[in-house]
Amino acid sequence: MTPSQETALNASAPPAWTRRPTNLARAVTAELVERIVRGTHPSGTSLPPEPVLCETFSVSRTVVREAVKILQEKGLVQVRQGAGTMVTPPSSWDMLDELVLAATIAEDDSLAILDDLVVTRRVLESDMANVAARLADPETVDRLGALVERMDELVDDTVTYHEHDRAFHDTVMQASGNRIARGVVRALESQVVNTARYMGRTERSLCVASNRGHRRIYERIAAHDPDGAAEAMFTHITEAWLVRRNGTGSPSRLER
């Protein structure tokens, strides 16, 4: 079987649903997102026509049209009069979208997309730490200090440790007052925080090392040292990710 024949076969393959979903449009959308990201429907090609999609997913035209509309909103396709529904290049995709980001991460063996996520988070959180060091009131400083002390006690309980870890970062972000940057970071983190590919290794020694980074950030914010807080956050996020992804065998964009 040639590659083109295999692609055509995969494109028309029925979904692997164990039972018929309640929300058919959402289920069809999710399946098509995965197929587009996987390359079953490559960029620059058109999706199969409505009748084929209806038969593939055993759904009505109404469901297919709703799914295509959602795909268009996510930037994955463009409906062209007379030319069908064309798959757009990855540069047009909404990478903050839950389905798009999850599918892209799942298909990226190099972890490059997670590197990009960490770089984005690092830039935004470093800036927010800078601002937090200028604006943080005594109550915020006390809360950060209490979280650092508590995390020192939780290094043997990695699940609870990471809950406090996220609370620490969120406290810094809230102190900056930058709701948009905080929203972007929280949206990105929510998609990957429970995935093994992002969390990597979780063990006591890593929690100990991670909290040393938190303590440096806290100390610079408490000292109202904007540049020092930004540098401490930059270093912490970089080092924590490189340790978590260690052993994958692929170089990180953060190291290049």
What report would you give on this structure?
The protein has about 260 residues and is mainly alpha-helical. It contains 12 helices and 2 strands, in the order H-H-H-H-E-E-H-H-H-H-H-H-H-H. It has helices at about 5-10, 25-40, 50-55, 60-75, 100-105, 110-135, 140-155, 160-175, 180-190, 195-200, 205-220, 225-245; strands at about 75-80, 85. It has a two-stranded antiparallel sheet with strand order 1-2. Strand 1 and strand 2 (about 85) form a beta hairpin. Helix 2 packs parallel to helix 5 (about 100-105) and helix 11 (about 205-220) runs antiparallel to helix 12.
Task: Please name the defining characteristics of this protein.
single chain; 256 residues; mainly alpha; two-stranded antiparallel ribbon; 2 strands; 67% helix; 3% strand; disordered N terminus
What's the short story on this structure?
The chain has 256 residues and is mainly α. The protein contains 12 helices and 2 strands.
